């Protein structure tokens, strides 16, 4: 089978959408850090639609910060890939053309810094997942002890971290008298723009106070809320998509029909007309972000942790477990919603209903391990924000106690039947060791995890209204409480 590439596009059947613009004329206006499935299903698709409308200033250079896999798949395809949107009724195939160039940062860090310093580049965007920010999750500030940050402060001309690349490239631009680029985080963090600004400023201050002044005065860090469910691609997807195309696509992306992007409209150097292709440009993203993180991502983590230790494999499997599905629905209605400020005009019951429907989408195989991975980085903004709001209003912890207890259980690496479960988390070994030291006692096990300050901060583990319900929930989970 021929591979998908610019020269084989013409072989596709007419039913498959493909770029109608001349990719050879597209300039690179965006450098994107973290070229994973999410970016390719989301921002790259919106930007492709803008290129389709004729504004060719906004091609994307996508950089992987770690592994060469994406480049190895996409470079022979000229950056082209298939985006498959699947709902229970329809499957839509579209070839995305906005990724013009692909790089692997560790192979030549300087080349990426240079690319970011190019005068045509107006935006640097990021989907590097929570851990890529090198934040101390409990304080939301730069983790200066992080090995990548220490490395980058010592060798800024050869950065390894995303903040390091941004600081290095902004330094180049300032020294060359160029305008800076706008920095746009597209990760699931509260106030992602403001957080990233604080990290970059903290790092820049250590490099050169004049650079920090330049960044403080001239660089915009708009916040965004991004939403689309994107399961990791598996070989079955590759085979099915290649079959439909009649061409081999080494890395298609399979996603849902739904997509939402809310962006704070602050781009002094310009931006694609994303508002013409479905994105919402607003003054303040906060209420959208909070609603999405606490309801969608909160429910996702609840399903992944409780469903994972119950032995379920996918989100749809977990939703087919009635007790668990009811529990998650009640969590959204009774525990999260009462302490949530929502965007003006938002219809919370419909939003929740749509989420449950999206979770049930039978056409997606969204594995729970994908969502449970890096839970230590996700819990603070998905569970603990709601927990703190509830406790400060004198409300009980409610079902969050089970989510946190399930996190403690999951960190042991075993499910409720004693079967091993895959634990992918930067804090996995620290958490496992703590649990081994704690032994079988429920109270000690819970304390061993709640005392991890990088996740829980300092105050929650001492608060009896937090700690005691988590211990009770943990005991119930260990005993195999069937009511859940
Ligand atoms: C998920 C998210 O993997 C996870 O942690 O909760 O990736 C989720 O699918 C997206 O945020 C949906 O927009």
List keywords for this structure.
N-(1-d-carboxylethyl)-l-norvaline Dehydrogenase, domain 2; five-stranded parallel β-sheet; 13 strands; 484 residues; Rossmann fold; alpha/beta; 2 domains
What can you see in these coordinates?
- The chain has 484 residues and is of the alpha/beta class.
- The model has no long low-confidence stretch (mean pLDDT 97).
- The strands form four sheets. Strands 5-2-1-6-9 form a five-stranded parallel beta sheet, sandwiched between helices. A three-stranded mixed beta sheet has the order 4-3-11.
- The protein is globular.
- Strand 7 (135-136) and strand 8 form a beta hairpin.
- It has two domains: 9-282, NAD(P)-binding Rossmann-like Domain (Rossmann fold), CATH 3.40.50; 286-478, N-(1-d-carboxylethyl)-l-norvaline Dehydrogenase, domain 2, CATH 1.10.1040.10.
- The chain is built from 20 helices and 13 strands.
- It binds D-mannonic acid.
């Amino acid at each position: 089978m021929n591979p998908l590439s610019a020269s084989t596009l013409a072989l596709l059947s007419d039913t498959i959408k493909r770029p109608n613009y001349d990719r050879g004329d597209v300039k690179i206006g965006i450098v994107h850090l973290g070229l994973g499935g999410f970016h390719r299903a989301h921002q790259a698709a919106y930007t492709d639609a803008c290129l389709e409308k004729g504004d060719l200033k906004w091609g994307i250079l996508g950089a992987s910060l770690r592994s060469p896999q994406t480049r190895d798949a996409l470079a022979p395809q000229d950056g082209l890939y298939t985006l498959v949107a699947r709902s229970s009724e329809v499957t839509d195939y579209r070839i995305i053309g906005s990724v013009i160039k692909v790089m692997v940062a560790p192979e030549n860090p300087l080349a990426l810094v240079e690319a970011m310093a190019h005068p045509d580049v107006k935006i640097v965007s990021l989907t590097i997942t929570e851990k890529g920010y090198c934040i101390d999750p409990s304080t939301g500030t730069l983790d200066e002890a992080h090995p990548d940050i220490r490395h980058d402060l010592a060798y800024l001309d050869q950065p390894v971290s995303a903040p390091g690349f941004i600081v290095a490239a902004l330094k180049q631009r300032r020294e060359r008298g160029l305008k800076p680029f706008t920095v746009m985080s597209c990760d699931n963090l509260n106030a992602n723009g403001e957080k990233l600004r604080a990290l970059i400023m903290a790092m820049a201050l250590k490099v050169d106070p004049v650079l920090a002044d330049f960044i403080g005065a001239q660089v915009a860090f708009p916040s965004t809320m991004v939403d689309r469910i994107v399961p990791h691609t598996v070989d079955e997807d590759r085979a099915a998509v290649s079959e439909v195309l009649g061409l081999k696509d080494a890395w298609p992306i399979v996603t849902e029909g739904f997509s939402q992007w809310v962006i704070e409209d602050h781009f002094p150097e310009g931006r694609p007309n994303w508002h013409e292709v479905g994105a919402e440009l607003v003054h303040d993203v906060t209420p959208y972000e909070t609603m999405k993180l606490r309801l969608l991502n909160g429910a996702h983590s609840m399903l992944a942790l409780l469903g994972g230790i119950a032995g379920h494999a996918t989100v749809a499997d977990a939703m087919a477990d009635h007790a668990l599905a009811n529990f998650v629905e009640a969590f959204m209605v009774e525990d999260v919603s009462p302490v949530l400020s929502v965007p003006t005009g938002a219809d919370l019951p419909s939003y929740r209903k749509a989420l449950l429907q999206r979770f049930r989408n039978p056409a997606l195989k969204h594995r729970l391990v994908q969502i449970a991975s890096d839970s230590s980085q996700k819990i603070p903004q998905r569970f603990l924000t709601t927990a703190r709001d509830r406790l400060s209003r004198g409300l009980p912890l409610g079902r969050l106690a089970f989510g946190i207890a399930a996190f403690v259980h999951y960190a042991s690496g075993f499910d409720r039947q004693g079967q091993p479960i895959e634990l992918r988390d930067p804090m996995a070994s620290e958490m496992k060791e703590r649990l081994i030291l704690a032994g079988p006692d429920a109270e000690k096990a819970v304390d061993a995890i709640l005392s991890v300050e990088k996740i829980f901060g300092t105050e929650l583990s001492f608060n009896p209204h937090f700690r005691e319900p988590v211990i009770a929930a943990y005991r119930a989970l260990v005993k195999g409480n069937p009511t859940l």
